Amino acid sequence: MAAPLVGILMGSDSDLPVMEKAAAVLKEIGVEYKMDISSAHRLPDKTAQYAKTARERGIEVIIAGAGMAAHLAGVIASHTTLPVIGVPLKSGALSGVDALYSTVQMPPGIPVATVAIDGAKNAAYLACSILSIKYPAIAENLEKFREKTRQSLIEKSETLKKT
């Protein structure tokens, strides 16, 4: 097995059902990944260490999903210059809006690319787009996926025209 190019982190095991969707996309495109749980609040030392050592472990993009205060992606971004993609997760009284604001409102110089609430699939597609700059096989697989999606929509459109 090749070293993972993408690290998928989540703040809690309750985030797994959403974050598994990112893993499924990466698997479909043929990108090695590794998943882990690391809370910015409950495991701050582990989270910082993960981010600080990610590059030397071969990680090139990090996807971080968290709900509520959702500081995970920002904390990771503060400890690495690798691209970090935040996935705000739907939870709590505000149904993920708090997580969205926490993830997207980063101070200048510490960016976190942010997708929609529960948008783990798009986080993975964005990670693949970033990696496609360097890896032709990922670029090719991503283009094949997009073409398959286009063809599916064309077929559905044709089916609707017949009814």
Could you explain the architecture of this structure?
This protein has 163 residues and is α/β, with parallel strands linked by helices. The chain has six helices and five strands. Strands 2-1-3-4-5 form a five-stranded parallel beta sheet, with helices on both faces. The longest helix is centred in the C-terminal third of the chain and has 27 residues, at 136-162. It is globular, with a radius of gyration of 17 Å. The N and C termini lie far apart (48 Å).
Task: Annotate the secondary structure layout.
Blueprint: E1 6-10, H1 16-29, E2 33-37, H2 44-53, E3 61-67, H3 72-78, E4 84-89, H4 97-104, E5 113-114, H5 120-132, H6 136-162
Parallel strand pairs: 1-2, 1-3, 3-4, 4-5
Helix pairs in contact: 1-5, 2-3, 5-6
Global outline? globular
What's the CATH architecture? 3-Layer(aba) Sandwich
User: pLDDT below 50 for ≥5 consecutive residues: which ranges?
Assistant: none
Total of DSSP H or I helical runs spanning 4+ residues: 6
Q: What radius of gyration results from the CA coordinates?
A: 17 Å
Order of helices and strands: EHEHEHEHEHH
Major beta-sheet overview = 5 strands, parallel
CATH class: Alpha Beta
Strand content: 15-25%
Number of separate domains: 1
- What's the N-to-C terminus distance? 48 Å
From the helix content, strand content and strand pairing, which structural class follows?
alpha/beta
Strand order of the largest sheet: 2-1-3-4-5
Helical residue percent band: 40-55%
**Average pLDDT metric:** 96
Classify the fold: give the CATH topology. Rossmann fold
